[in-house]
Amino acid sequence: MGSVRQASEPGAIAEAAGILRRGGLVAFPTETVYGLGADATDDRAVARVFAAKNRPEFNPLIVHVLDIAAARRLVEWTGEAQALAERFWPGPLSLVLPRLPDCPVSGLAGAGLPTLAVRAPRGAAARALLERTGRPVAAPSANPAGAVSPTRAEHVLDALGDAVDLVLDDGPCAVGIESTVVDLSGETPALLRPGGLPAEEIEALTGPLARPGDPDTPRSPGQIASHYAPALPLRIGSGAPESGEALLSFGPDAPSGAAVERNLSPSGDPVEAAANLFAALHDLDRSGCTGIVAMPVPETGVGRAIMDRLCRAAAPRPLVDPPDRN
Ligand code: TXA
Ligand code: MG
Question: Same domain for 104 and 186?
Answer without folding.
Answer: yes
